[in-house]
Design goal:
Blueprint (H helix, E strand, L loop, with lengths): L8 H14 L5 H10 L5 H17 L4 H14 L8 H9 L8 H13 L6 H17 L3 H14 L10 H5 L3 E3 L3 E3 L4 H17 L8 H5 L1
Antiparallel strand pairs: 1-2
Membrane topology: Multi-pass membrane protein
Family: Belongs to the SWP1 family.
Subcellular location: Endoplasmic reticulum membrane
């Protein structure tokens, strides 16, 4: 959600127009983020979108675990009356039995279950944290670390091996025009990493290793 202390009313109005336009795109991800951030959704427009979600899901080129999340989230945001297909839900629930291949996949599987109101059992949390630890040994790219921070925040536990990687992530930030810091991949990746760092350091009571100038940038 937008922080009004940092953006004026004109900025907020412009963003609302962006989200309104996003609902008109035949894109499941755009529908999810637009419906998540719009203040007031037209009932008829919401109903029309609900009827299109399954088609948008089937046409999406995203990874299965990504579009599973966006379908669940969009349905919830739009207050769809139609229940998600049992076959689809069964596939989502059984996904915990397979071994994820990336921190991104773990993240989407976890948050999808949470959106469905499913309590993640401790044995599954422990399993995913162990897998995550092994995955980071093979891939500690900034994207992998960004999703890892969010996974650790969602699952919690006593293990802090992810929070201990915060400094490793921050040193990968590039300075742009001497005015800002961002990570390779642009604003979306920077947002992923920064919000993940804030979440994981808060949960594990660690200080963010940034000086005041870096924080501003």
């Amino acid at each position: 959600r937008t922080v009004q202390d940092y953006l004026g009313q004109k900025d907020l109005n412009r963003l609302q127009r962006v989200f309104t336009d996003g609902l008109k795109l035949n894109d499941l991800q755009a529908v999810y983020y637009s419906s998540l951030n719009l203040k007031d959704l037209d009932i008829k427009e919401s109903a029309d979108l609900c009827s299109k979600l399954q088609t948008l899901y089937e046409e999406s080129k995203l990874n299965a675990y990504e579009k599973d999340f966006y379908l669940i989230g969009s349905s919830k945001n739009l207050l769809c009356k139609e229940k998600l297909p049992e076959e689809f839900l069964g596939k989502v629930y059984s996904s915990f039995k397979s071994t994820p291949s990336s921190s991104q996949e773990i993240f989407y599987r976890v948050v999808s279950h949470k959106l469905l109101g499913v309590q993640i059992e401790e044995q599954n949390s422990s399993k995913f944290l162990k897998i995550l630890q092994e995955l980071l040994k093979k891939d500690d790219s900034i994207v992998s670390l960004g999703y890892a921070f969010h996974v650790a925040s969602e699952l919690g536990g006593v293990q802090t091996f992810v929070a201990d990687r915060v400094e490793d992530a921050i040193v990968q930030a590039d300075e742009v025009d001497g005015k800002m810091l961002q990570f390779e991949g642009g604003l979306s990746i920077t947002a992923l990493v920064v919000t993940g760092i804030i979440r994981v350091t808060n949960i594990f009571k660690k200080t963010i290793p940034l000086d005041s100038e870096q924080a501003v940038k």
